[in-house]
Amino acid sequence: MEQLLSVERGVCDLRSFHVKRRYRGAMVRVLITGMSGVGKSSLLEMLGEWGQFVIDTDYGDWKTPEGIWDARLMGEVLAGNDSVVVSGTVENQGEFYERFDHVVLLSAPEEVILERVQNRSTNPYGWSEEERAEIRGYLRTVEPLLRSGATVEIDATRPLIDIAREIVRLTKDERST
């Protein structure tokens, strides 16, 4: 039995969503990735408000207990939706790159990211010095891997509305893959 799909504040939780929902626009699948603090969740919130079908995999049941994407759930949503913007940074995301038309890396300087995570109120990750040290390490080890798989890199220090407009343009452009 298929699960019903409903969007609450533009974020998809598969327990309450039907994976056959279609966006009435261009048919492009976009992955937004990047380090914690670059603005992925804020970007998805804005895109959702603009009517894009978005999934923030930091919330809901998208990850297994090991912290990787649930391959069955992600496979279902990508197979059932021609147009979706997914956000997340997990170890197995590369297994899904070929199913996205664009893989967008949001990047920002270390000092910007650390300031953002320390001052945000929506997610406590990055509030402790231990977590900020972890982020510094990920910037040196994980971000280069994300960059090598990205089809587009966007400077996340730009105004959020400009970044959102660029993502919308990507959803209207020809597929990159």
Radius of gyration: 15 Å
CATH class: Alpha Beta
How many separate structural domains?
Answer: 1
Low-confidence stretches: 1-25
Briefly note the structural class of the backbone: alpha/beta
Head-to-tail CA distance between termini: 32 Å
| Continuous helix count | 6
CATH architectural category: 3-Layer(aba) Sandwich
Helix proportion range: 25-40%
- What's the rounded overall pLDDT mean? 85
Overall outline: globular
For the biggest β-sheet, the strand order reads 2-3-1-4-5
Overview of this protein structure:
It is built from 6 helices and 5 strands. By secondary structure, the chain is of the alpha/beta class. The protein has one domain (14-172): P-loop containing nucleotide triphosphate hydrolases (Rossmann fold, 3-Layer(aba) Sandwich). A 5-stranded parallel beta sheet has the order 2-3-1-4-5, with helices on both faces. Helix 1 packs across helix 6 (160-172) and helix 3 (110-119) packs antiparallel against helix 4. The protein is globular. The N and C termini lie far apart (32 Å).
